[in-house]
Design a protein that fits this description.
The complex is a heterotrimer of chains A (287), B (326) and C (236).
Chain A lengths: L2 H29 L6 H18 L4 H22 L9 H23 L13 E4 L2 E4 H23 L1 H11 L1 H6 L4 H23 L9 H16 L4 H22 L1 H18 L12
Helix pairs in contact in A: 1-5, 1-6, 1-8, 1-9, 1-10, 2-3, 2-4, 2-8, 2-9, 3-8, 5-6, 5-8, 9-10, 9-11, 10-11
Chain B lengths: L2 H18 L2 H26 L7 H17 L4 H23 L4 H21 L1 H4 L5 E2 L6 H23 L2 H18 L4 H27 L1 E2 L1 H4 L2 H14 L6 H19 L4 H15 L3 H8 L9 H10 L4 H7 L1
Antiparallel strand pairs in B: 1-2
Helix pairs in contact in B: 1-7, 2-7, 2-9, 2-11, 2-12, 3-4, 3-5, 3-9, 4-9, 7-9, 11-12, 11-13, 11-14, 12-13
Chain C lengths: L5 E12 L2 E12 L3 E5 L6 H8 L7 E6 L2 E2 L5 H6 L2 E3 L12 H7 L6 H14 L15 H13 L5 E5 L7 H16 L3 E6 L2 H7 L2 E6 L2 E6 L1 H6 L1 H7 L1
Parallel strand pairs in C: 3-8, 3-9, 6-7, 7-8
Antiparallel strand pairs in C: 1-2, 1-4, 4-5, 9-10
Helix pairs in contact in C: 3-5, 4-5
Chain lengths: 287, 326, 236
């Protein structure tokens, strides 16, 4: 078994899961909404990147800017038109709304981009030598980008005034109202930020993986696994769990094949759910 | 309109259709009855006990495969469907025991993940399931038989729900939905109730999965575990009214008709439009049609009548109006 | 003097949350057929004590006996089955059910018509028959308290636990509830409650325990407690 190669592959994959999971976690923390459409924001991001870079021949860097703005706008629209009215109601409403929105986005994507796989084989091609392992450049960039953004957002949440305000909303919504923080504004901002993060994850994975409109749901369930293993609402927990599950998936796929390998992830998630529902580093929550 | 008249009307409509309807009407009827069975099953755990079950399609798909494999082994479709139903029940008991310790979003995500695990297994164990290619079955000659089986399933669940709604068991489930901790502290046997209702709610979906595979003469993982089935079912219950007797039926009929119209007019963007319809329903009718009916004139019965009748027999007339005013 | 039969005995229970001591070896005894109250300022540990008796919290040390049987680590459900009814500090009336349905839902071991009879009787007793068909969500704060007491009585408990029954309601309703509780005691029920309404507690109880900072600082008949220097120091 090429242990080192698998390990590196797992860590690199985990980086993308981390970015996805952090966005999901942020939204869950502030809004108490499980965003079933999060994966679709990423898929839309990936497919839009393919169009911008592969079709319109814009530089990849341009996609890094344009696509997150696009998905943020999409998230903003959804939040302002639909989600805003539902977040304070029963949980099933917001769950179902994001579920429905994910269906809309999948089918919209199929309409725009078709159902097939698309990729960017010419962008960030080649590979570099690392720890004696050949690593494809596109995966390395995806990992580095994802980690940079995840850590950047974390820094923003802990070090800036606005970021701390967001965290206070996540921790105690009642107190935030009293201290005059507009919860509505925080939620809107958070949802847009989370959507931008998902879009960015899409941009980063576009050169490294083949993308199709169904990509979102495959990634989403893994991101769910990550935040449950790491603990819903815990940022460091999610980052650690993401890397851990990336490694599990890569090793699992190597041993038992890709389909059952990714099912392993869910089985780990279920095991964690049963043993420690709040996750490894999760904040306890009453639901 | 009272409950019995409502059920009788539904039953008569279901009975007449295969004799007067075209082939198209029967296929529409099959879909409608299937979703009726799914919606009523979901309503038991999601509506009454209040557990947001996002993995019902796991049982549907599981049943589809159990049924398809039985039929592949030469079984008639009817015993195959019964086997699927039993399989669903047997699977649901330990699964419910494990998963129902989770609450709220954790349960939703856990069951959603469970459905995806099953889908992956169906894809992965291709020695048994033929993976993504799917299993082909010999078609049934008379669709009316399948229609009849779905009709039995749907009406059975409607009647069972009606009975439940008029019983204390129904109230105990509602108590779990309202406040599980309090219910438990007040002596309601919450664990066994919710595991029981979860298992009961898995029987019909598993049977329906098997019947649906028979109806299509084909099953593959994408069809068996389609998230769209889940989404549509839950939306129908929500549109009609969670935890009510007739809400799901009203939701199923309303949504099926809308979906059918959309399908016939805009087939290429059909699924997208269904998503939009669901969003509109959630935003504008969060309490469902039954919730609206409860607040306004009674378009259709909202249930829990048995108890009220029992009370009315015991208290002086006029009290109810007084209470309503006071 | 003959040994008094005790419905409930709490033996030196302690509880810490993190580093904070919520209860420090607190003991008390509730005689059969009595009304016993625990009083104490916020943070004195009375809610912790109450939750332990109700089975919602397990003590770190000490034991709790119900009719002489050890129920120290029993679940709330088991405590309930042992014949204990309870209300909640913050109302937990089932909102989407009518008051009558709230009562019927927690009845077990009775057939339907017996459950309905019992529920109607209790609504009568607490004079809330007119609320019978109101939704839980429509009730006022005080009405919820009454509905919860009725619900707690559904299973004919021998011990009724009341979590701050007098907090936040008007004096007229307070007096009304006092009245009901006295009537329940006359029917042979034992009542145990926590509250911080000094006036009522001293008025209604046979036995009062005063908690401060997790310890029982005084106990006895209301008249004794009223004069206790430790209580005066803690309260006034």
């Amino acid at each position: 078994m090429p242990v080192l190669e698998l390990l590196v592959g797992g860590v690199l994959l985990g980086g993308l899961y981390a970015l996805m999971a952090c966005g999901l976690n942020l939204i869950f923390g502030v809004m108490r909404v499980v965003n079933f459409a999060h994966g679709e924001f990423m898929a839309v991001g990936a497919l839009a990147t393919v169009s911008l870079v592969g079709g319109m021949h814009l530089p990849f860097v341009a996609a890094l800017v344009i696509v997150p703005l696009l998905t943020a706008a999409l998230g903003l629209l959804f939040q302002l038109v639909i989600l805003r009215r539902l977040v304070d109601g029963p949980m099933i409403m917001s769950l179902l709304a994001t579920f429905a929105f994910s269906t809309i986005l999948v089918n919209l994507s199929i309409l725009i981009w078709g159902g097939g796989y698309r990729g960017l084989p010419d962008v960030l091609g080649g590979s570099v030598q690392m720890l004696g392992v050949n690593v494809s450049l596109s995966r390395l960039v995806a990992f580095a980008g994802a980690m940079a953004v995840s850590l950047g957002v974390w820094w923003f949440l802990t070090a800036t005034r606005f970021g701390r305000a967001i965290r206070s909303v996540a921790q105690a919504p009642e107190l935030a109202t009293i201290s005059g923080i507009s919860i509505e504004r925080m939620r809107t901002f958070t949802f847009a930020l989370g959507s931008a993060m998902a879009g960015l994850a899409g941009v980063l994975l576009a050169p490294a993986f083949a993308s199709d409109p169904q990509l979102g749901s495959r990634f989403l369930i893994k991101a769910f696994a990550v935040i449950i293993v790491g603990g819903m609402g815990s940022y460091p927990g999610a980052m650690m769990a993401a890397i851990l599950l990336g490694i599990v998936e890569v090793f699992g796929s190597y041993v038992v094949g890709p389909v059952i390998g990714s099912a392993l992830l869910f089985l780990i998630m279920l095991a964690v759910l049963l043993v420690r529902p709040r996750g490894l580093l999760g904040v306890g929550m009453r639901v | 309109m009272n409950s019995i008249a409502f059920i009788a009307t539904a039953a008569v409509a279901v009975l007449i259709l295969p004799f007067v309807g075209s082939e198209y009407a029967i296929s529409f009827g099959v879909q409608l009855l299937m979703f009726t069975a799914l919606a009523y099953s979901w309503n038991l755990i999601g509506g009454y006990a209040g557990y947001t079950h996002f993995g019902q399609v796991a049982f549907f798909g599981f049943g589809a495969y159990v049924g398809a494999l039985c039929m592949g082994a030469g079984w008639h479709w009817l015993p195959a469907a019964v086997a699927a139903a039993l399989g669903g029940l047997v699977l649901a008991l330990p699964l419910g025991f494990a998963m129902l310790r989770l609450k709220g979003p954790f349960f939703a995500i856990g069951m959603f993940g469970m459905a995806r695990v099953f889908e992956n297994f169906a894809l992965g164990f291709d020695g048994i399931t033929d993976g993504g290619t799917g299993l082909y079955l010999s078609p049934v000659s008379d669709m009316r038989q399948i229609y009849a089986a779905f009709a039995v399933l749907a009406l059975g669940l409607l009647v069972a729900t009606w009975r439940l709604d008029n019983s204390r068991l129904g109230l105990q489930l509602l108590a779990i939905r309202e406040d599980e901790t309090a219910a438990e502290a007040l002596g309601v046997r919450t664990s066994r109730l919710k595991i029981g209702v979860f298992a009961a709610s898995a029987i019909a979906p598993a049977a329906a999965g098997s019947l649906y595979a028979t109806y299509l003469a084909f099953i593959d993982p994408a069809t068996a575990f389609a998230p769209m089935t889940e989404l549509t079912t839950i939306s129908m219950v929500l549109l009609g009214g969670l935890g009510t007797v007739f809400g799901p039926l009203v939701g199923v009929v309303t949504m099926s008709v809308i979906n059918e119209l959309l399908w016939s007019r805009f087939p290429e963007i059909y699924l997208m439009l269904v998503g939009c319809v669901i969003l509109l329903a959630i935003v504008f009718m969060p309490r469902g049609l039954a919730g609206m009916a409860r607040r306004r004139s009674l378009l259709f019965p909202v249930g829990r009548e048995g108890l009220r009748r029992l009370v009315a027999r015991r208290s002086p007339p006029g009290m109810r109006t007084e209470a309503a005013l006071g | 003097m003959a040994e008094i039969a005790h419905k409930l005995v709490v033996n030196g229970v302690s509880k810490r949350f993190g580093g904070r001591v919520a209860l420090d070896a607190a003991s008390l005894e509730v005689a059969v057929g009595s009304i016993t109250g625990v009083i104490g300022p916020n943070g004195s540990g009375k809610s912790t004590l109450f939750n332990m008796v109700a089975g919602a919290l397990a003590p770190d040390a000490g034991s709790i006996l119900l009719d002489g049987r050890d129920v120290t680590r029993a679940s709330p459900a088991r405590i309930c089955r042992e014949g204990v009814g309870r209300t909640f500090q913050i109302s937990r009336v089932f909102a989407e059910m009518t008051v009558l349905e709230n009562l019927i839902a927690v009845a077990h071991g009775l057939d339907d018509s017996a459950a309905v009879d019992r529920a109607l009787e209790l609504l009568e007793l607490l004079e809330i028959t007119r609320l019978r068909d109101c939704w839980g969500a429509e009730l006022s704060y005080g009405q919820r308290k009454l509905a919860e007491i009725a619900r707690a009585l559904m299973m004919s408990p021998t011990l009724l636990l009341l979590d701050e029954p007098f907090a936040g309601i008007n004096p007229r309703l307070q007096n009304q509830i006092v009245d009901y509780l006295v009537r329940l005691r006359e029917r042979g029920m034992t009542l145990f409650f926590i509250d911080h309404e000094m006036r009522i507690v001293l008025d209604i109880c046979d036995q009062v325990y005063v908690l401060a900072e997790g310890r029982v600082i005084a106990h006895g008949r209301p008249a004794e407690v009223r004069e206790d220097p430790a209580v005066l120091a803690a309260y006034f």
